[in-house]
Amino acid sequence: QVQWVESGGGLVQAGGSLRLSCAASGRTISPYAMGWFRQAPGKEREFVAAISRDASRTQYADSVKGRVAISRDNAKNTMYLQLNSVKPEDTAVYYCAARFTNGLWNLYTDFDYWGQGTQVTVSS
């Protein structure tokens, strides 16, 4: 059973940076297309970024494009989300997600596996 564990969340001031990690235990991540989603209080879970299995392709939500970078290190079984120039509206629980296939996926229903989430809070 693969476990997906996010880390790196916390409190950050507006304009600051944060790097989130998603580590897989029990199996390599290389066969999985992966992504990041976030959910703010009272709102639906929304797509943030996606990355293909070999990291050759990435996709970003318009709300974060230019401020966020998704990456992965298959040798370390870890995916990352670099958040720059953060805004209070970036405050949410961030989830990593995985799908056992290639390609780019951006719908909540596309993904089969989820981490437990890590809280990011941006103060103004």
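^ that was protein a. below is b, sequence first then the tokens
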Amino acid sequence: VQLQASGGGLVQAGGSLRLTCATSGLTFSSYNMGWFRQAPGKEREFVAGITSSAISTYYADSVKGRFTISRDNAKDTVYLQMNSLKPDDTAVYLCAADRLRPPSPDYSDMDYWGKGTQVTVSS
């Protein structure tokens, strides 16, 4: 199983980025997907989650109204659209997959994790 995140970069505060997580080796449409982030010196934290059917989505309070998670089951890919970025959003962003539960602020014990993509927001 491989999860490959991309789309990170350097952006000014107020700007936007779209992260992509391409997957292989799993039945993507059967997996709940999510995005997490880890800033230097901080613990990893939940950002957004989406159920396998895309019926439900979940967001950390810090990104609600600014970030949108979506998925394309035909392309085995999950996305994270990030708008109105702030310097506090600076982190390595990782995607993850879980067969049984979508990630949420209360659940992060995912089955598979990908390598991250760096997002840096300058003030």
